[in-house]
Every structure is written in structure tokens, then in C-alpha cells.
Amino acid sequence: MYQCRLDFFSLLNISAVEVGKHLYWQIGNYKIHGQVFIVSWLVISILLILAFLGTQKLNRIPEGLQNFMEFILEFLQDIAKNQIGEHEYRQWVPYIATIFLFILGSNWAGALIPWKLIHLPEGELAAPTNDINTTVALALLTSFAYFYAGLSKNGLGYFARYIEPTPVLLPINILEDFTKPLSLSFRLFGNVLADELVVSVFTLLIPIFIPLPVMILGLFASSIQALIFSTLSAAYIGEAIEGHSEE
Q1: Cβ contacts of 241-247, under 8 Å, gap ≥ 24
Q2: pTM for the whole structure
Q3: pLDDT in tens, the chain (247 residues)
Q4: d(CA 47, CA 41)
Q5: Could you give the CA distance from residue 226 to residue 128 in angstroms, rounded to a whole number?
Q6: Alpha-carbon distance 146 to 233, whole Å?
Q7: Is 121 helix (H, G, I), strand (E, B) or coil?
Q8: What is the number of helices (H) and of strands (E) in the chain?
Q9: Is the peptide bond before 121 cis (omega within 30 degrees of 0)?
Q10: CB atoms within 10 A of CB 15
């Protein structure tokens, strides 16, 4: 019976889907995740090139790439304004926009580019956001951002919120600050990794044209994940500011 199960899975080639192998570069006493580093800087380079080209020749009546860039900017400004507030949102637009565009670019890079064609000594190239280290780092940036927002607004008095409306809620309020980055990071990591695994398994089991609807759905889901992460980041910042601007 055991042998039959092994034969069944070998026929399906499930073993070709590998999880957990990574390419590391040793620089001094530090290890750098080579796969994440390569794709991350590719995404960053593409975003910088698009930003440079879109702002090279600005017209009063936008057209072409400038029109697209202004549409994206207005979209991200609306996210920041709705979550943070009309009087405080402007200084946070660069952060919210950077988070959204990097996550969106990373997710789409993993979904659109056939990384499997590029062979590495260990592991394979993929979306940076399918690595838990990347998503945790992004979530911690948001945590630092809303702590900074609260402290800059009310100084050390910001920490008084932990005992509001009653000191009994102190453990719960502290726990909330730990769960925010955890939920942000694991939600993004889980969805991106699951999408890539589903597409990989479908590609192995059935012809290449059948998984295309799944890939298109993955692009949509990747966009939603970028939107959720940036919206929640803005909401946490807005919550930190709003809670103390009213005092």
C-alpha cells in the first residue's frame, strides 16, 4: 500500500514542487537571501525607471505615462486621506505609496515572470513577498510608522492609550500591538505563497494553457493583497494619530 502511494505521487510529479531551498550569499558575518535580493532590486529598478520616465516631461494636460502616474498617485492619496484624515495624510502618502507599489510589483513579478527558466545553484527566483522575512520586515516598518505617528503627535503620552479606558485592558492593548504586524505579515506571505504553489501544481498536472485562469485570478488576488496591506497600514497610522489629536 505504501509503495502504491509513492508510485502515485511520483507519477503526478508533485515532488517537483520544492519549498524551503534558498540561495544565500555570505558577506562578512552576514547572510543575504540572494533570491529576495535579486528580485527585490529588479522590482525597485522597474519602479524607479517608470517614475523617472513618467516625470521627465510634465504637461499641464497629462497624457500617456504621465496620465497613468497621476491616476496611481490620486488613487494612493485617496487611500491615505480616507484612513489617516484630510489634515494629516499628506506626509504619509510617500510611505503608503511605496508600500503599495513595492508589494504590487513584487507580487506581479512572481506571477508574470517565468522565474523557473532561470536556474540557480540553490532554490529558484520568486516573488520577494513569498518569503516570510520580507513580509515581516514590511509589517515592522508599518509598526514603526504608527508608533512614530503617535509619539510625534503626543510625545510619551501616547503610551497612555494602553490603559484607556481602563488599566484592566493593559495586557490586551499591548497584545494588539504584537498581533498587528503578525497579521499583516502572515496574511501577505500566506496568500502569495499559496497562489504560487497552486499555479506550480496546476502547471505540473495539466497543460500550460489550463492554469492561465488561475494565474489571472492570482494577479487579481496579488493586487488585492497590496491594497489590503497599504490600507491597513494607513488605518493603523490614522488610528495612532486620531486617538491623540482629540485629547
Answers
A1: 241/84, 241/85, 241/88, 241/149, 241/150, 241/153, 242/85, 243/150, 243/161, 244/150, 244/153, 244/154, 244/157, 244/158, 244/161, 245/88, 245/153, 247/154, 247/157
A2: 0.80
A3: 444 444 433 433 433 444 456 666 667 777 777 778 888 899 999 999 988 888 887 777 777 788 888 889 899 999 999 998 888 889 999 999 999 999 999 988 877 776 666 666 666 777 888 888 889 999 999 999 988 988 888 777 777 777 777 777 788 878 888 888 888 888 888 888 777 777 667 666 666 555 567 677 778 888 898 999 999 999 999 888 875 444 4
A4: 10
A5: 13
A6: 8
A7: coil
A8: 7, 2
A9: no
A10: 10
d(CA 147, CA 177): 10
Looking up cell 523557473 gives 116
Q: Do 204 and 12 meet the contact criterion of CB atoms below 8 Å apart?
A: yes
